[in-house]
Amino acid sequence: MKKLMAILAALVIMVSAVGTGAAQPTGKIVVYSASGPEIADPIIDLFNERYPNIEVTKVHAGTPELFSRLRAEANNPAADVMFGGDPLTYDREADLFTPFDHPEKANFQTYDPYDIWQPFTIFVQPLMVNTSMVTPENYPATVQDVLENAQYFKDLGGIALAAPNTSSTGWTIVSGIATAHGWEFIADLVPYLSVTNGSDAMFSAVRDGELPIGWINEDLGVQWEQAGANVKLIYPTDVSTIQMDAYGLVKNGPNPEAAKLFMEFLGSKEVHEIAAQIVKRRSVRIDVEPPGDLPELEGLNLFYASEPRDVVTDRFNQLLGN
Fold it and tell me: Which domains does the chain have, with CATH numbers?
């Protein structure tokens, strides 16, 4: 727990009680979701059960794309709530959001003192191999092993990695590995990479047997393992990257009252129990146990994104020759 609190503190430095009345609330909200359907859909389904007279429209895309849309729409917002993405991005784009003092804040392990973003979950990005393509003797124990055996993986198609400019997960992975091993390590790895446009493409390329190895958000990876997909998660002993996602109330959104209700809902214990038990994410709530399917954080060698996204993106693109 001490190591978890230290990680949370570092993430912040770098950066339920839902009220009901006699009548059911009505209206609609638009949610921009950087979180995939495996995360957002069970939560929105539950919200629809609790508030059947509020219509929820979800728009899913990568974090950079959604924040670009928010910026372009700033004078006439189309969204009410931004769901997903890292706290640093919310900090940088703080003028797009209205501070929201969450009534459940006392139950969060960490929070934004300015209330621009609310913490949601913590998740690790282990390696994932396709077991139909990679033989057990070639399973890496470390990220260093991936580089040492990079030609083997290249011959099978390459090492899947999401571009940092299109994926917060890709940014976290590149920055975390560079922190652990240096940018020279990243430079040595680049010739063997298959760079994907977004994290969803990275995940599915390995699952579907298009590429032999890559990184995965652990919640989705363990779901695929349990469903019998030809994948295996490996937590490298030298560096596993870690990330926290957040959500925020869009400034001057078209449906502010329904949006506030959704914001409260996202921080509720009920939602975070779904996040832990069904989605397999580690909740930031102090009263929700982490998924039993995942290893304890204290036993992992964890690194987070320690450099600004634009710095990581520029350096990575230079290595790619872009």
Answer: 2-122+245-294 (3.40.190.10), 124-241+300-320 (3.40.190.10)
